[in-house]
Write a structure and sequence with these properties.
139 residues; mainly alpha; 0% strand; elongated
Length: 139
């Protein structure tokens, strides 16, 4: 376990989620260093192990609270996308000149934007279904 595993919701008075997203980026960049370290060693680590490490250590941080900050500005959300792209470049060992959509495809990752949208739809569907059940039970 890491000392900073407790994720706190950092709110700002303008409800832009920028402070919270900055915190998530900082925390995920620290863990990105672990991925870099594993990838740089001559341990025979394959792409599948690097991807699993990313999925376990970094992606949950990037997606934490996504239904709330789904409406943050594109410039703020871009910070999260850049962390994901950095991880995908480490996993695939592709150069920076390679387009980001190809890097994500090779890493077998969807852009965070698509994952946020899908997660929001699932969240709202579950919320509305539970509200409908509660309404039916009370009548």
């Amino acid at each position: 376990m890491f000392a900073d595993d407790i994720v706190l919701w950092i709110s700002d008075s303008e409800f832009t989620s920028s402070k919270h997203i900055d915190y998530l980026v900082l925390k995920s960049r620290k863990r990105l260093n672990i991925l870099k370290y594993i990838a740089s060693k001559n341990w025979g680590v394959d792409v599948a192990t690097l991807r699993l490490t990313y999925l376990t250590l970094i992606r949950p941080i990037l997606e934490y609270g996504s239904p709330i900050y789904c409406w943050a500005s594109n410039s703020v959300l871009k910070k999260l996308e850049l962390v994901q792209l950095s991880a995908a470049r480490i996993i695939t060992d592709l150069e920076h000149s390679c387009p980001s959509n190809i890097v994500l495809f090779e890493a077998d990752e969807q852009p965070l934007l698509f994952r946020r949208q899908t997660g929001l739809v699932k969240y709202l569907t579950n919320f509305l279904a539970s509200a409908h059940k509660t309404k039916r039970q009370s009548t």
